[in-house]
UniProtKB/TrEMBL annotation:
Keywords, in A-Z order: Actin-binding, ATP-binding, Coiled coil, Cytoplasm, Motor protein, Myosin, Nucleotide-binding
PROSITE patterns: IQ, MYOSIN_MOTOR
Domain Myosin motor per the UniProt entry, residue ranges: 1-499
Native source organism of the sequence: Stichopus japonicus
Protein name per its UniProtKB record: Putative unconventional myosin-IXa
Lineage: Eukaryota, Metazoa, Echinodermata, Eleutherozoa, Echinozoa
Amino acid sequence: MLALTKRKSVARGDQFFVQYRMSEATATRDALAKGLYSALFEWIVLQVNHALLSRYDVKGEHLGNSIGVLDIFGFEDFHLNSFEQFCINYANEHLQYYFNQHVFKLEQEEYQREDIAWKHIEFIDNTSCLLLIEKKPTGLLHILNDDCNFPAKDEEGQNLLRKFIKEHGKNNYFHQVHATAFIIQHYAGKVKYHIKDFRGKNTDLIRPDILKVLKNSNLSFVRELVGADPLAVFRWAIVRAFFRARSAFVAGGVRLRTQGRTPVKKPQSALKSHNDENIQKHVSDLHEPHAYTRNRRSSRSSRSSKKLALLSPGGLCDETYAKARKVLKKNRSFRGAQSQPAKTLRDLNSMRRLRGDKMPGMRRQSQKKTQTVSIQFQGSLNKLMDTLNQANPFFVRCIKSNSEKEPCKLDEKLVMRQLKYTGMLETVRIRQSGYNVRLTFEEFCHRYKLLLSNGLASSVDDIKEFLVEMKLDQKHYQIGMTKVFLRESERIKLQDALHLKVQEKIVLLQWWVRGVLQRRRYLQQQATIIAIQALARGYLVRKEMQAQEERLLAAIFIQNYWRTYCFRRSFLQLQKGVLYFQCLIRGNQARMHLKEMKEEMNRLQEEDILRLKDEDDDDRTMVPHIEPLKGGLEEVRSPESDEGILTPRVGR
């Protein structure tokens, strides 16, 4: 609060405070708010750009194309116009100049360079207005900056206005209204500016004492915004993390030497004596160290106790420790998860790529001249114009329907005035009478190579003959030194012809593709038919072979059966003949045997008769001999049975 109400001054080595007046205190407050807002805006842009930055963008410069959208405040003309409106209208003058260069001047210069028959179109050129504002060293901005370099009490701006009038009193774009205002003839009309507060708003920077208060804020986010360059903030974060880690390791070593290797469930409880929450947070993430040996613990125990005595409250460095605690307490809130997005700034390469300037509030002390608001604004505008000059622009004009910003209300005078001052009428005229299609010979041949007789090898004469053959209106196209200039109507005719030619090529290509597909389909069908035929023929052949095999097997079976039958019949006949022959032989043998038996029987009978005669008792014995003999005779008489033939001799 003291920095907002009092100002510190130094005179002859003595420091004293001067009370602000109400207007000065209000201006200081507004400067503080604007500085914080600007710093916050820059920080948000930095974070967004870093979030969109890929890892490939950090490796090198981007060589491809990019798309940018520029949307700024329009031309402003209020009842009371001051330094803000002056800067905004100055930026719009630059953009209007850029628009005129691209739409009018550069286009007509190209027509003259290509030796095209062209009637020059006049347009509102605001070059003189820009020279009035920014020309060195007599421009209004340079006069304002030079006046701000010298301390003087000129709140009403009378001296500054006199300097303006002295340099530009005879300029057609500068007019003096009265002692407190002046008029500039802009492209959109005359605007009256009040000179009051021009000087104060141009030097509307944060005073050193206000900046010091913000740098010593308890909020690390505020210190990050206004305290330093982002690179310095990044480096300081690394240094701070190093010292925090060192303090945590020292505390861990002290705990290890005092308590031993016993596991600690709550590591923060070992550091309660230090009463430092920030160190406790970092030590809580540490694991129990195991690299110390007993010899190292014994050799460093005395030195660690001295360090503990110096670090703990009530030791030899109590005041230093309190200051260190205060600094750590301030930096405690500076954590990536709280003050920055999830995707934080990772390395210096990304920082250097995102930021080429300093953060707001950071001023180089080596600069001799004051870095005024107009100088910063002019530098930013020059960078913007350099970027636009390297691009291929597309313009979108926004017209206000009324000054009250009410819906469904159209102020014809306001709309016509905007169309007039923005050069839209001349733009429409140059678009209607100009050639909006401009193609080099190579581009023309490449685009319409299907229509040209020689294709890409076509010459300028071939292009002329082609345009004549297309029966285009000669008033709507011209051939320059290196380009072909066409109007939209002729371009449409060429596009229609190209479309028909492309359709023919497409039909031809479709015919060829369909022919290829049909032939491929035919070949596939032919191959399929051949495969089916091969399978069918194979099936029929296998079936016929199977039938032949069955017939062959049947013939073999019949042959076997017939041969078996023939052999059996022959065997049976042979067997029957053999049996018959055997019967004959055996019958003959039996008859011969019977004959012998008869002879023997007769002989025996004769002997028996003789014996009977001799002995009367032998009659009984003769009867058994006669009975077998009778039986043998009966068997001999029946030769039809085989068994009788094979009967052995009786009496043997």
